[in-house]
Amino acid sequence: LAKTTQPISMDSYEGQEVNITCSHNNIATNDYITWYQQFPSQGPRFIIQGYKTKVTNEVASLFIPADRKSSTLSLPRVSLSDTAVYYCLVGESNTGKLIFGQGTTLQVKP
Amino acid sequence: GAVVSQHPSRVICKSGTSVKIECRSLDFQATTMFWYRQFPKQSLMLMATSNEGSKATYEQGVEKDKFLINHASLTLSTLTVTSAHPEDSSFYICSASGRAGNTIYFGEGSWLTVV
User: Fold this and answer.
1) Portion 51-90 of B in contact with A at CB < 8 A
2) Contact B74, B67 (CB under 8 A)
3) Model confidence over B21-78: pLDDT tens digits?
4) Are B93 and A44 in contact (CB < 8 Å)?
5) Which of A9, A74, A78, A103 is deepest in the core (most CB within 10 A)?
6) Which residue(s) pair with A13 in the sheet?
7) Does any CB of chain B come closer than 8 Å to the CB of residue A28?
8) How far apart are CA A62 and CA A74, in angstroms?
9) Between chains, do A44 and B32 touch, taking CB under 8 Å as contact?
10) A90 neighbors A24 (Cβ within 8 angstroms)
């Protein structure tokens, strides 16, 4: 399974755009890239998923370069409630098996 | 969107007893479910893959006789922690993959405390 590497922590202020980059050098051809958000004592919540180029939904954007060896989650105008751990995952598209890395703890300050 | 539900959300059991945690996919059929364990301030650790109608596949280091997994239907997988000990106290989370397989959804998690 492809291993992912993310910054352990990031700080931001309310209203700012936050970009979290994840590297996945060994991503396989059929793997999708998925980002999850986790609050304490809750299960991870799906944020966004992509295969290549750019994907945007109502909460985030995901940028994936052509070589797919990295991806960047962009959160526009974060608020205090976006303080959480963010996980970048590269999964086997045929099995759905996901291996979690350390994740990035985002702290949004007022 | 797809919903995965776990029950109970919190359970306390005595050392030596067994406890069962349920994971249900509410609006889709889950051919595969996954069970994770998470200790405080740590990441999720995959324990096993639960396949509907067949035996679960356990990750290295996970005792299959201690963590019994049953996936008898396309909407339900259960994890039974047998002969629980205090060190089994943890946050257990399940996830489910629908037939399309690309997007994985997680349950709310179940806190197990063994006293």
Assistant:
1) none
2) no
3) 999 998 888 888 999 999 999 999 999 998 888 889 999 999 999 999 998 888 999 9
4) yes
5) A103
6) A109
7) no
8) 6
9) no
10) yes
